[in-house]
Amino acid sequence: MPATDDLHDTERTTEELAEVMFSGNVIEVFFDTLLTFRVSLSGVDVFVRHALNAEQIADLTAGVGHGEVRLAMPLAAQAGGPLVVDPGEAALLSRALEARNTLLGG
Fold this sequence. Notes:
Layout: E1 4-5, H1 14-22, E2 26-31, E3 35-40, E4 43-48, H2 54-65, H3 75-79, H4 87-103
Parallel strand pairs: 1-2
Antiparallel strand pairs: 2-3, 3-4
């Protein structure tokens, strides 16, 4: 996978994100301490830091394929409270997935 472009600027537009991906870089998006998304032209990698059951994995995978993040919280993560997702990171993920889809002709 190409080198990571450390994006902390959640204000980049979809077009700017498309340029980042087109140049071979990866966009990383962090959802609290549970999920890390790495979006590039070659794919969308999701790193999960807690064990998920088969149903949660299927739900997450189906959602990402449609540009959504759907996840019923695993019991281990619920004990520490709800998943805190920064609105800027959530918007960044949406724009990154949209930019990837546009570049791939979808």
